[in-house]
Amino acid sequence: MNISAKVTDERVLDVRFDAHSLIVDLMDGRTISAPLAWYPRLANATVEQRAHWEKCAGGFGIHWPDVDEDLSTEGLLRGASAAKVAVGTHF
To answer: What is the pTM of this model?
Structure first.
């Protein structure tokens, strides 16, 4: 029996937006799309702020310095929305 392993590369290739979605292209050819409403900081950001992103965490994360938002490809692939912090919670 021949077992072939899938080769995946979940690092970020490109990030873009349409009117309602965050769209992330991965190095292995996959594209992740998530509702922009899941990420309030990005939903409320200007087009210019959304366009100003950078790779982080070795390419497995995306950082928007203008709005202090960080997302990981792992979380996007899981379908995780932005974390909600309870009132009175301190880190």
So the answer is: 0.82
